[in-house]
């Protein structure tokens, strides 16, 4: 991540980060400046990812409570804003109980493998015109590849727990992730067609005239559903279906190991929101040209909007049965994604001025 | 004990075709137990979905339930034995703990039995109050049954929170009437205790009745018309009418299979023969049918409660008097059934001339309806098993006694 | 079908049936005046039929009730301990018949004396499959055994429990029993291995039986101690 974060020297805009970057260059001449900036970017992104996950927990729980006619956390901190800190401290202080016959190495390795991919994905997300940690030319490909890295961790968790419920959960997760990988990639491909590039900054740049959600409504819907299924978000959360298999693959986990799964769930939810915003909602581009609000805030607002939609879906919908939604993935989402590609190609041919 | 048999082969051979997304009735997968390894899983007794401490010993072929053995008794408190050491009136407190989500119907069954033994009958006003309490209790229990069924199907407690919130108003009413929210001990032979009705009960009960249709509609919008819910409930766990009767099922489990048997109509007690209400049935016999029967019964109960509120104004104000001694003659026995929310609740008592019953036996509907679970769930998947189990609406306090 | 018709049909099958009557109940619009004036006894009406059936004819009676008389719901099976025999009460219902608003009650008495463990009675499961759980409960709590039941095991008490709690002569055991002594059998069918028995005895001796009523001083305690030494 550090290597990818080494920036190009030139930056034209009066961006604060870029200004700070150039001052750092003056302080640390030569290559060290680049490394320092890269390290700072890494720290910023990683910390943002983790702290944001905590903040999202609060938003999630308050929204859930609102749907359920109750209040939600409102004791710790102002309006419950420090609830996630309290939860985090509690989880760190708890014992990680490892079942006697569980495979110890994989049991402890699994949460780590589940957590780090989503942090990696944050490296290529453009928070603002120059606020991107690593501007890779294959940005979207990197994101999709990296988020798929989480599934061995899920399967490891299920298998190594020596628990039939966990095993069932892990197997369901594998089937689900394999199924929904295809529509996910195909719907992202539609966007790539429009933008003509795999780079995230170029994709945002190509949404100058119209946000891609308009010409690619089908693709956007397919992408959102496939991404939710990839991350086992409700209503696709069968791997951890609470009412059937207790906690699925994370049944045997307690303490911070469980905390890492929890963190990964929220963090990857934000990743979905961020990637969806970049691909379809114009990234950091302002709505109606209101440039008073800085682009970073626009980006965060849009990502949280997508997050809110996902929370809404979570607490309003029942859960699918395994075979029902696997067939949904293969028989409905995949054909729709193909259809979306055709539509995208047709639109590009007919309306070339859609894209900048 | 059956041993784990591994017969090589592909393993994980799911012997069913994925179902299309529509409302066609689904059939359970044909069971081919020789094809892959059969896994034995313990479902419960600690489990978010077993409505209490119920232990299901499942034999699974992949995700398909080959056999389901129901093991309970974790909540057995020997209530029938304890009742032999309590008095006829004091022991009523025991029956509250049986079906604890709707204790008024339990009270009614117990007290009707005692009254048959003593050959007394409460005055009309008491009967009306009892019916009103019963029906409010039925609404409360059906809210829990429906809300928790939503959780079983995967709604992540939204429906549970709503249902418990709506139930709170009914519990407040019970609190006003008898001082208790859950274990009432309200009825007495020939009367109720306390005999004085609370001052503003009519306003509160009418408020509940006004809000109930909107809430039922909200539940319909939330679940009944939800395509995912329909996938989970329509056509799942079909119980034919013949099977249901043969298995002695009663209540919504039986009425959801098309048999219009309701104790309130078959053997009317209290003032039910003078009240205007419908017996709700559905023909499909699947989980959706049982769930819809419950929601419609909430509306019927509301109808009865409104009639009772009007009757309380017309009927004479005599609230009856409790007999000084409750010592039925030796050799008398009585068996009374009452329509509880989960089925026919029966109480059998035998007297021996002392203040304590010689024998008390409780016919608990959940206990008997649970016997239908293995038949209903064979060939379905784990997720469907939970859906089917939730649709029977079991209360473990009643099952284990 | 009226109760009289049912009773007649049963008598024709050779079973002594009698119609039970009960006072007419639950009419709502009764005036307070009528109640004061000496309370005219409410009219009795026939509700239900009662029939004594010896255990040997139980299956015939149940089959006749279901097939010929149309009693399609076995509502409840109750067992009572009458001292020298168990009485089994079968309450049957005709679901579609609103005219017969009572039960058909078949009473079957099973003598205790010939079977010290519990009398054997034919199971109703071939006729009504809902009798399955109810008969298991009766076996568990009363000890009546049902011939023909697919799987007659305990249902409310735990595996290894001994005794039938609802019997009148049941002695509840108050001491804490280590699970090893609760009757679980080893793989070769023996109750306990020698080592287990020795360990269990050590455990048991570590606890002394203390009388729950503090006012009764030494005698029961010594009796308990004497019993231990005798063994």
Shape of chain A: globular
Radius of gyration of chain C: 25 Å
Sheet-strand content of chain A, in percent, reads under 5%
The tally of beta strands of chain C, per DSSP, is 7
Q: What structural category arises from helix and sheet content of chain A?
A: mainly alpha
Counting DSSP E segments of at least 2 residues, the number of strands of chain A comes to 0
Describe this structure in words.
The complex is a heterotrimer of chains A (356), B (401) and C (231). Chain A has 356 residues and is mainly α. Chain A contains 14 helices and no strands. Chain A has helices spanning 2-5, 16-27, 31-67, 83-93, 104-121, 139-147, 150-160, 164-195, 200-205, 217-230, 242-245, 255-280, 295-316, 322-350. The longest helix of chain A has 37 residues, at 31-67. Chain A starts with a helix and ends in a 6-residue tail after the last helix. Chain B is of the alpha+beta class and 401 residues long. Chain B contains 15 helices and 8 strands. Chain B is globular, with a radius of gyration of 22 Å. Residues 1-26 of chain B have low confidence and may be disordered. Chain C has helices at residues 3-12, 32-36, 58-67, 131-142, 194-206, 219-230; strands at residues 17-23, 44-52, 73-81, 85-93, 104-111, 120-122, 145-147. Chain C is elongated and about 70 Å long. Residues 29-40 and 207-231 of chain C have low confidence and may be disordered. The chains are: A mainly alpha (356), B alpha+beta (401), C alpha/beta (231). Chains B and C meet through helix 4, strand 7, strand 8 and helix 12 of B and strand 3, strand 4 and helix 4 of C.
């Amino acid at each position: 991540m550090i290597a990818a974060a080494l920036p190009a020297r030139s930056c034209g805009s009066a961006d604060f980060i870029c200004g700070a970057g150039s001052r750092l260059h003056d302080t640390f001449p030569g290559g060290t400046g680049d490394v320092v900036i890269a390290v700072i970017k890494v720290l910023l992104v990683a910390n943002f990812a983790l702290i944001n996950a905590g903040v999202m927990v609060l938003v999630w729980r308050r929204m859930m409570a609102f749907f359920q006619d109750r209040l939600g956390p409102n004791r710790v901190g102002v309006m419950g804003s420090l609830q996630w800190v309290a939860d985090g401290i509690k989880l760190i202080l708890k014992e990680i109980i490892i079942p006697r016959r569980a495979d110890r190495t994989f049991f402890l390795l699994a949460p780590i493998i589940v957590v780090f991919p989503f942090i990696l994905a944050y490296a290529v997300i453009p928070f603002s015109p120059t606020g991107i940690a690593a501007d890779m030319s294959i940005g979207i490909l990197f994101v999709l590849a990296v988020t798929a890295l989480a599934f061995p961790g899920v399967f490891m968790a299920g298998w190594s727990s020596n628990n039939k419920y966990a095993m069932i959960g892990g197997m369901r997760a594998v089937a689900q992730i394999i199924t929904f990988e295809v529509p996910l990639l195909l719907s992202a491909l539609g966007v790539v067609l429009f933008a003509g590039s795999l780079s995230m900054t170029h994709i945002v740049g190509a949404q100058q005239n119209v946000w891609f959600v308009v010409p690619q409504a089908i693709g956007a819907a397919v992408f959102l559903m496939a991404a939710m299924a990839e991350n086992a978000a409700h209503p696709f959360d069968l791997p951890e279906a609470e009412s059937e298999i207790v906690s699925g693959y994370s049944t045997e986990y307690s303490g911070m190991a469980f905390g890492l799964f929890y963190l990964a769930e929220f963090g990857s939810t934000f990743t979905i929101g961020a990637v969806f915003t970049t691909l379809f909602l114009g990234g950091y581009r302002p709505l109606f040209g209101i440039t008073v609000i800085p682009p970073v805030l626009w980006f965060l607002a849009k990502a949280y909007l997508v997050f809110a939609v996902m929370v809404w879906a979570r607490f309003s919908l029942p859960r699918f049965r395994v075979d029902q939604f696997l067939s949904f993935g293969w028989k409905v989402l995949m054909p729709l994604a193909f259809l979306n590609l055709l539509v995208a190609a047709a639109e590009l041919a007919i309306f070339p001025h859609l894209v900048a | 004990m059956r041993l784990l048999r591994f017969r090589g082969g592909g393993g994980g051979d799911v012997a069913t075709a994925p179902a299309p997304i529509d409302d066609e009735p689904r059939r359970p997968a044909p069971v081919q137990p020789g094809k892959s390894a059969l896994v034995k899983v313990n479902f419960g007794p600690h489990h978010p979905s077993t409505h209490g401490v119920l232990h299901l010993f499942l034999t699974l072929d992949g995700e398909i339930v080959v056999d389901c053995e129901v093991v309970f008794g974790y909540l057995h408190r020997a209530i029938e034995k304890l009742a032999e050491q309590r008095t006829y009136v004091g022991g009523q407190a025991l029956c509250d703990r049986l079906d604890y989500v709707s204790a008024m119907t339990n009270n009614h069954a117990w007290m009707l039995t005692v009254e048959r033994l003593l050959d007394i009958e409460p005055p009309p006003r008491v009967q009306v109050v009892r019916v009103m309490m019963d029906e409010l209790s039925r609404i409360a229990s059906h809210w829990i049954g429906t809300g928790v069924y939503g959780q079983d199907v995967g709604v992540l407690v939204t429906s549970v929170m709503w249902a418990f919130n709506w139930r709170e108003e009914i519990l407040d009413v019970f609190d006003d009437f008898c001082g208790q929210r859950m274990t009432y001990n309200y009825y007495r032979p020939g009367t109720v205790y306390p005999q004085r009705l609370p001052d503003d009960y009519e306003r509160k009960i009418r408020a509940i009745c006004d809000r109930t249709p909107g809430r039922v509609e909200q539940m319909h919008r939330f679940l009944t018309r939800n395509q995912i819910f329909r996938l989970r409930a329509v056509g799942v766990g079909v119980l034919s009418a013949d099977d249901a009767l043969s298995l002695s099922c009663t209540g919504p489990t039986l009425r959801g299979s098309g048999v219009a048997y309701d104790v309130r109509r078959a053997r009317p007690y209290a003032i039910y023969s003078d009240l205007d209400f419908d017996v709700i049935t559905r023909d499909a016999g699947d989980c959706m049918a049982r769930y819809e029967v419950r929601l419609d019964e909430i509306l019927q109960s509301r109808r009865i409660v409104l009639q009772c509120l009007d009757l309380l104004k017309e009927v004479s104000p005599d609230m009856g008097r409790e007999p000084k001694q409750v010592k039925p003659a030796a050799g008398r026995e009585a068996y009374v059934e009452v329509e509880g929310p989960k089925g026919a609740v029966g109480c059998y008592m035998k007297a021996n001339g002392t203040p304590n019953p010689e024998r008390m036996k409780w016919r608990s509907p959940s206990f008997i309806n649970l016997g239908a679970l293995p038949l209903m769930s064979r060939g379905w998947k784990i997720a469907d098993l939970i859906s089917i189990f939730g649709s029977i609406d079991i209360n473990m306090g009643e099952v284990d006694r | 079908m009226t109760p009289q018709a049912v009773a007649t049909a049963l008598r024709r099958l050779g079973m002594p049936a009698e119609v039970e009557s009960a006072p007419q109940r639950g009419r709502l619009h009764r005036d307070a005046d009528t109640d004061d004036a000496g309370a005219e006894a409410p009219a009795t009406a026939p509700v239900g039929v009662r029939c004594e059936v010896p255990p040997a004819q139980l299956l015939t009676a149940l089959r006749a009730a279901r097939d010929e008389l149309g009693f399609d719901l076995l509502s409840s099976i109750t067992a009572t301990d009458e001292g020298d025999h168990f009485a089994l009460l079968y309450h049957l219902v005709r679901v579609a018949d609103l005219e017969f608003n009572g039960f058909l009650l078949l009473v079957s008495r099973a003598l205790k004396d010939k079977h010290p463990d519990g009398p054997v009675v034919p199971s109703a499961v071939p006729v009504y499959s809902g009798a399955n759980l109810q008969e298991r409960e009766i076996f568990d709590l009363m000890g009546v055994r049902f011939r023909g039941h697919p799987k007659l095991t305990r249902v409310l008490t735990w595996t290894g429990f001994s005794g039938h709690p609802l019997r009148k002569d049941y002695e509840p055991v108050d001491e804490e029993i280590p699970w090893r002594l609760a009757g679980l059998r080893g793989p070769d069918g023996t109750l306990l291995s020698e080592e287990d028995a020795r360990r269990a005895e050590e455990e048991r001796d570590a606890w002394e039986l203390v009388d729950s009523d503090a006012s009764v001083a030494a005698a029961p305690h010594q009796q308990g101690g004497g019993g231990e030494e005798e063994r």
